[in-house]
């Protein structure tokens, strides 16, 4: 127990509700051995006595640690192949057969044949996959199949 008995008028540490700090307070009212009301020496506000935080509160910090959630496995690859990806694979497999010097420079007014090699200013080398009427053709480029105009 506390050796010195508190009594009204004594100065004690208390949490001030207005200053929101631990400050010196003068005891205003007591019930038996317990301080019930205090007056803040700083703001002179009279309020119920709130004891200063104890060591207990320091333990709260440890509770915050949570074991990290189990790592999510990378998203499963869908069984269906990405069409663009299969186009790229096809292009890559055809690439060794492509002879750039035999490629026809793409021109929307040009005429092309299936399996003909095309050199496009933007898409690069491509192979004509299909001729579509009217005046369109599907060409396989490194980035995938493009629909181009032709004669
Ligand atoms: Zn105060």
Give the strand order of the largest sheet, numbering strands 1, 2, ... along the chain: 5-6-7-8-9
What is the mean predicted local confidence, pLDDT? Answer: 85
* SSE order: EEEEHHEEEEE
Main sheet record: 5 strands, mixed
Report the radius of gyration as a whole number of Å. 41 Å
Give start-end ranges of low-pLDDT stretches.
none
How much of the sequence lies in strands comes to 25-35%
Helix % is 10-25%
Query: Which small-molecule species are bound to the chains here?
Result: zinc ion
Number of helices, where a helix is a run of at least 4 consecutive DSSP H or I residues: 2
Instruction: Determine the structural class based on helices, strands and strand pairing.
Output: mainly beta
Terminal CA distance reads: 103 Å
How many independent structural domains? 2
Strand element count: 9
Report the principal-axis shape. Answer: rod-shaped
Describe this entry's structure for a reader.
With 151 residues, the chain is mainly beta. Helix content is 11%, strand content 34%. The protein has a five-stranded mixed sheet with strand order 5-6-7-8-9. Strands 1-2-3-4 form a four-stranded antiparallel sheet, with no helix packed on it. Strand 1 and strand 2 form a beta hairpin. Zinc ion is lined by residues 16, 18-19, 23, 40, 42-43, 45. The site of zinc ion has 8 residues, from loops.
């Amino acid at each position: 127990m506390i050796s010195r008995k508190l009594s009204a008028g004594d100065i004690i540490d208390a949490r001030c509700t207005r200053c929101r700090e631990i400050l010196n307070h003068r005891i205003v009212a007591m019930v038996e051995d317990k301080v019930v009301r205090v007056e803040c020496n700083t703001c002179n506000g009279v309020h119920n006595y709130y004891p200063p935080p104890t060591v207990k509160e320091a333990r709260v910090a440890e509770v915050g640690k949570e074991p990290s959630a189990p790592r999510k496995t990378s998203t499963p690859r869908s069984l269906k192949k990405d069409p663009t990806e299969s186009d790229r694979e096809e292009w890559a497999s055809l690439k060794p057969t492509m002879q750039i010097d035999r490629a026809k420079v793409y021109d929307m007014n040009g005429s092309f044949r299936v399996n003909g090699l095309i050199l496009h200013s933007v898409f690069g080398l491509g192979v004509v996959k299909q001729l579509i009427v009217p005046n369109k053709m599907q060409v396989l480029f490194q980035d995938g199949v493009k629909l181009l105009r032709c004669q």
